[in-house]
Design goal:
There is one protein chain. The protein has helices spanning about 5-15, 20-25, 30-40, 45-50, 60-70. It starts with 6 loop residues before the first helix and ends in a 17-residue tail after the last helix. The radius of gyration is 23 Å and the shape is elongated. The chain has about 90 residues and is an all-alpha fold. Helix content is about 50%, strand content about 0%. It has one domain (about 5-70).
Amino acid sequence: MAFAWRQADLATRAGVSESTIKAAEKGSPVSSENLLRLLLALGHGSDVIKMLDAPHYPDLDAQARFFEMKPTASPALAKKRVRPKA
């Protein structure tokens, strides 16, 4: 999509400041809320909403189970022996 908008036009349509537009164009961090506002103003917000609502993303319980399986420290760095010498 090509728009003949100035930064001020996009800022007004998206409900953000012009400095937010400039930051986004430079690749500087912007809040997720402002990013969504920009995408909605540019006609791409529904794509992001569909992606976030996608059923293939794991739920929080699955994520918690994944992190419970990960070791918190390397056995090589442990100060105590896990098994006594044989």
